[in-house]
Amino acid sequence: MPDRSKMGLQYISLISISPEVERYRDKVEVECIRNGFPETVDLILSIIMQESGWRFSKDVMQSSESKVFPPNSIKDPYQSIEAGIK
Known about the structure:
Elements: H1 19-22, H2 25-34, H3 41-52, H4 77-85
Protein backbone atom coordinates (compact mmCIF):
# COMPACT_ATOMS: atom_id res chain seq x y z
CA MET A 1 0.00 0.00 0.00
CA PRO A 2 1.42 3.37 -0.91
CA ASP A 3 2.00 5.84 1.90
CA ARG A 4 0.37 8.98 0.50
CA SER A 5 2.05 11.22 3.08
CA LYS A 6 5.53 10.13 1.94
CA MET A 7 4.58 10.77 -1.68
CA GLY A 8 3.27 14.23 -0.85
CA LEU A 9 -0.22 13.33 -2.04
CA GLN A 10 -3.45 14.53 -0.54
CA TYR A 11 -6.62 12.64 -1.21
CA ILE A 12 -9.97 14.31 -1.67
CA SER A 13 -12.51 12.36 -3.68
CA LEU A 14 -15.12 14.29 -5.59
CA ILE A 15 -17.24 11.22 -6.27
CA SER A 16 -18.90 8.65 -4.07
CA ILE A 17 -17.08 5.33 -4.25
CA SER A 18 -18.78 2.37 -2.59
CA PRO A 19 -16.94 0.71 0.32
CA GLU A 20 -16.79 -2.53 -1.69
CA VAL A 21 -14.79 -0.75 -4.40
CA GLU A 22 -12.90 1.61 -2.08
CA ARG A 23 -11.00 -1.38 -0.67
CA TYR A 24 -9.16 -1.59 -4.01
CA ARG A 25 -7.97 2.04 -3.91
CA ASP A 26 -4.38 1.22 -2.89
CA LYS A 27 -3.95 -1.34 -5.68
CA VAL A 28 -5.49 1.03 -8.24
CA GLU A 29 -3.15 3.83 -7.08
CA VAL A 30 -0.10 1.59 -7.42
CA GLU A 31 -1.09 0.47 -10.93
CA CYS A 32 -1.98 3.99 -12.05
CA ILE A 33 1.37 5.32 -10.84
CA ARG A 34 3.19 2.37 -12.45
CA ASN A 35 1.48 3.08 -15.76
CA GLY A 36 1.99 6.85 -15.67
CA PHE A 37 -1.45 8.26 -14.93
CA PRO A 38 -1.89 8.68 -11.15
CA GLU A 39 -4.57 11.34 -11.63
CA THR A 40 -7.08 8.75 -12.86
CA VAL A 41 -7.55 6.75 -9.65
CA ASP A 42 -11.13 7.90 -8.99
CA LEU A 43 -12.02 7.37 -12.64
CA ILE A 44 -10.69 3.80 -12.50
CA LEU A 45 -12.59 3.15 -9.25
CA SER A 46 -15.74 4.44 -10.95
CA ILE A 47 -15.12 2.06 -13.85
CA ILE A 48 -14.79 -0.81 -11.37
CA MET A 49 -18.16 0.17 -9.86
CA GLN A 50 -19.74 0.23 -13.32
CA GLU A 51 -18.06 -2.91 -14.70
CA SER A 52 -18.76 -4.97 -11.61
CA GLY A 53 -22.47 -4.22 -11.96
CA TRP A 54 -22.58 -4.20 -8.15
CA ARG A 55 -22.10 -7.99 -8.28
CA PHE A 56 -18.45 -7.71 -7.29
CA SER A 57 -17.19 -10.75 -9.09
CA LYS A 58 -13.48 -11.47 -8.85
CA ASP A 59 -12.96 -9.93 -12.31
CA VAL A 60 -13.78 -6.46 -11.01
CA MET A 61 -12.76 -4.68 -14.22
CA GLN A 62 -14.12 -7.34 -16.59
CA SER A 63 -10.55 -7.67 -17.90
CA SER A 64 -10.94 -11.28 -19.04
CA GLU A 65 -12.45 -10.21 -22.34
CA SER A 66 -9.56 -7.84 -23.09
CA LYS A 67 -7.19 -10.78 -22.57
CA VAL A 68 -9.30 -12.83 -25.03
CA PHE A 69 -10.63 -15.11 -22.30
CA PRO A 70 -14.28 -15.96 -21.63
CA PRO A 71 -16.07 -13.46 -19.34
CA ASN A 72 -15.08 -13.64 -15.67
CA SER A 73 -12.14 -15.97 -16.30
CA ILE A 74 -9.89 -13.86 -14.08
CA LYS A 75 -10.44 -15.04 -10.50
CA ASP A 76 -8.21 -12.54 -8.68
CA PRO A 77 -9.46 -8.93 -8.37
CA TYR A 78 -5.88 -7.63 -8.18
CA GLN A 79 -4.98 -9.40 -11.42
CA SER A 80 -8.14 -7.94 -13.00
CA ILE A 81 -7.04 -4.44 -11.92
CA GLU A 82 -3.51 -4.96 -13.29
CA ALA A 83 -4.88 -6.15 -16.63
CA GLY A 84 -7.52 -3.44 -16.79
CA ILE A 85 -5.15 -0.55 -16.13
CA LYS A 86 -2.43 -1.58 -18.60
